[in-house]
Each structure stands twice: as structure tokens, then as C-alpha cells.
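Quick one: structure for this chain?
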Amino acid sequence: MNEYWDLIVAILAGVVQGIVEWLPVSSQGNLSLFLILMDISPDHALQLALFLQLGTTLSATLYYRDEILESLEAVPQWRPQSAFTGPNAVTSFVVVACFATGLIGLPIYFLAVDIASELSGGLFIAAIGVLLVLTGVLELASKSVDLAEREDPTFRDAVIVGGFQGLSILPGISRSGVTTSVLLFRSYQAPSAFRLSFLLSIPTGIGAGALIFVTEGGIPGVSLEMAALAVLTSAVVGYATIGILMRIVERIPFWIVCFGLGGLAIVGGGGVTLLVA
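Got it. Here's what it folds into:
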């Protein structure tokens, strides 16, 4: 019975990741909530949610394959003086932003895992709720920005966006929501902001999966087979839904969703804590 239950959890976790990764509502936060409800400890839920980004990273790679190939073909012509112009601009943006993400995100990750291991499931859920609400506040604020016609990303854009992306290692802070909102604050049009955000997600997702595997010597909380099944499921579901959900994102104010999910998590997590106490 346990084997069948693990199989169901792995598939459902992959489905959740494959859908919510493309929505600015924190895939890591919502997947962590799901895994905690499936009786996985908060620290293992946090680590597994990070690892499953590998599946949607594969989806994004396939979806943006033409742009990735174009950027790779321009690499031999890369020069420092033209790093942030023309075909090299996106490649330079991604590389610099990833370094900034690592500098900010790595210490936050180790701190978050330590804190999660000490928190009860209810308190951890409530904490995710608070961060979801903060994500909603940022998304709402970005709607009031006057958008200009920005073309190539700059070095400053890369550092700022990468730094904020490092904060999204905390469950409840949406990586796509934060990076897209920051790009909107930097006067990018929404389509360009979404495109840069999801291109940036590819090396970030690979790095997150590698971080978990290297630091933990495996996949915490589940067997390697179940983790592989969850990653495969998230890749298939993610590729099938990315186009549809990207169009939805451009039409729906997802700060409302963040407020709603965050409020439910705060109330629900607080209720669980009181019951346990």
C-alpha cells in the first residue's frame, strides 16, 4: 500500500509543479504545502520542491529551444564591450543574474532548511502564507509602473533581477512573480519580462536540482525512483501547459491569487498549530 501511495504522491507532485511553475504564485511554496499535507516533513518538502524544478526546467528548455540555440550561436562572437547589446544581451543577462542569484540564494537556502527542520508543519504553512501575501503585494505594486520600451537588458538589470531571484528560494516567494515584477519596475513590457524571467529559470532550475543532490547526497524524503517519476511528470505536464498558462498570466491579476492562497495558508497553518498544541 505504501508503494502505491508513494507512486500517487510522486505523480501528483509532478502535476502540481508542472502547472504552478508558470504562474506567479510560487511553485515552490504551493508544492511545499502539498508535500506537507502528504506527510512529508517541512525541510524535506522544501528540498524536494526545489529538486522538482528540474522537470519544468526541461519543459522551458524545449519551449524556448529556438532562442536558446540563437544565444548559443552568438557566444563565439561575445566581446566584453558588446556583452549587453544585440544577440549577446540575453546570454550575458542570464549569466550575470545567475551569479547574483547564487550569492544571495545559497546562504538563504541553508538558513531556510535549518529553520524548516525546527518548525512544525502548521507554522511552516503559515510562514509560506505570509511570503505568498508579500509576493502578491509586489505584483500589485508592479501594475502601477509606467512601462517604457526597453530593448536589451543591462548589467544593472541582471544584478537586480538575479538578486531578487535569490530570495525566491524561500517557499512562498514566487520566482517568476518576483523576477517579472522587478523587470516591470525596470520598465520592460510584460511579454519581454515574462520571456527573460523564464529563460532565466532554466539554469536556475538546473542549479537548484544539483544543489539538493550534491548537498544531501540524494533526494530527501523520497526514493530516487519516485523523485525521477515526479520530475518526468512535471516535465510532461509543464510542456503541455506552458503556452496556455503564459497567455492566462497576461490576463489575470495573480496578486489576487497570492493574497487568497496566502491568507488560506496563514489561517490553515495557524489552525494546525493550535490543534497540535
